[in-house]
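Holo model, fe (ii) ion. Inputs:
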Amino acid sequence: MQGILLVNLGSPKSPTAKDVKPYLDEFLMDERVIDVPYLLRAFLVRGIILNTRPKKSAEAYKKIWWPEGSPLIVISERQQKKVQELIDIPVALAMRYGEPSIKTGIEELKAKGVSDILMIPLYPQFAMATTETIDVLAKNLIKKHFPEIKLTSLPAFYNKPEYIEALAESIKSHLEGFDYDHLLFSYHGVPERHIKKSDITKSHCQINNKCCVTNSKAHEFCYRHQCLETTRQVVEKLNIPEGKYSSSFQSKLGPDKWLQPPTDDTVNEFPTQGIKKLAVVTPAFVADCIETLEEIGLEAHHEFINHGGEEFRTIPCLNDDDLWINALVTWIKEWKNN
Ligand SMILES: C=CC1=C(C)c2cc3[nH]c(cc4nc(cc5[nH]c(cc1n2)c(C)c5CCC(=O)O)C(CCC(=O)O)=C4C)c(C)c3C=C
Ligand SMILES: [Fe+2]
Ligand SMILES: [Fe+2]
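Output:
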């Protein structure tokens, strides 16, 4: 029997430093997230970051936590439930870090008689720190514990018409009645080194204005290209003119050079450029989470107003929007019928 495994990132069990610490340890000790040799990674994560970050992150999580739990988990559960209502094969949910784990998700499907799984990493754009780490872990688990199960992973869907349509429609409806000066597409950042490491040609990616818009097979795994392409296709669909939108990258951690420009500086500089009414959309996330609700919805909003901005509107993630759920169902049916 066929079955579906939806996979997102995961959240701490509660918004307390005690629960944030093991979550961050598992997350940041992943060699595809902090991609340095093990001993250096252990020193950076366990010797430095985990001394202060859990308390700071817990405070941020507390501000956005829902009575039912972490927004990321609660929304992912709603997505799983809605997809399940529209599909006649089992649909399970898993998280790359924390619970429910990918192993638990596969076990759940196996217990229902599934031997052929379509795994959907819930990230529109490919990145080593997201899609790839899910693919690698799931493949290893299958090899070790479930050799009888066939696993297929859905590639990044940053340019699939159904995703672009759902995103464009959501932006349109949330901008209704808002006479905005600028629409910012804020994507989660990654160190520039990750982009170079994922370049399968080892010669294409220069991280400049040319490489990401010049045709190349490197784009299949280029996070920067895929982000810029999502923006391009959405603004084309919505007829948003050049100059009225831009893309930026948020959430920098550590001293490395991350993708440019950073969302925080970009937002803070807007008012001096005459941009007083700002809308922000976060297309690297399909479920609202700490990065969208706190970093953009609270922090960036506050800073924009402090720097002279007048109105700030955060566009929610696709969450359990019907068009987005239908997009997932369309891709599942395509796989099912092949
Ligand atoms: C080196 C650090 C990090 C990289 C690289 C990174 C890439 C990356 N992350 C997401 C999606 C999410 N990240 C989230 C939280 C989060 N991310 C990092 C660090 C890196 N992410 C940290 C330390 C945290 C925890 C929060 C904090 O302390 O600031 C989340 C939200 C989780 C939640 O519980 O709400 C998501 C989702 C992407 C898409 C990405 C690369 C493309
Ligand atoms: Fe992250
Ligand atoms: Fe590129």
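Residues 205, 211-212, 222, 224-225 surround fe (ii) ion (ligand 3) (CB under 6 Å). The chain has a mean pLDDT of 97.
Archived with the compound record.
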